[in-house]
Amino acid sequence: MSDALNKIAWPVHTQRLSLRRLAAEDLLATWRYRQLPEVYEWITSAPTELADYERLYFEEGRMQRDVAVELVDEQGTATLIGTVMVKVHDGWGQTEIIDQTVGVEAELGWSFDPAYSGLGYATEAVQAVIELCFGALGLRRLSAECFADNEPSWKLMERVGMRRETYSRANGLHRNGQWMDGMIYALLDDEWGGK
Question: How many domains does the chain have?
């Protein structure tokens, strides 16, 4: 689905954060923290040149699927601290009822500035996005995947209530040239404990 996030009334506020659509003006802020080694190591696309990142930023549809996560201070100044991807897609179904599978699932993904790690911001943001997916977007299933060595990511999946569905041996090629184990977590609407 090209722009499912249009169904949401932005911005969305949590206890400490403001979530909104990713914008063209966020390019440099996201580039800055995505170049840090602890982020770069695990994200799917990590160009090392700004021009390449800019091309991917605009051509991959990032603004149609990513949610910007901002921390707002007492003076009202917002700082972008991360993004959460909501990639809506069709579910699997048998041919006769395939029309019922259109746009009912989403893959989630995220990257956060490590300067703000350990404070619960990622958990708060992803929980809010899950609520939007099962609420405003009316989705039935969410999934997320990562390299098994990316412990902060799969621990976040567990904190927000996702369950591990698969552990695959050497199924993903890391940019370091090594085939690494991978994990997939998922959550169904009727399992969501945030309701």
Answer: 1
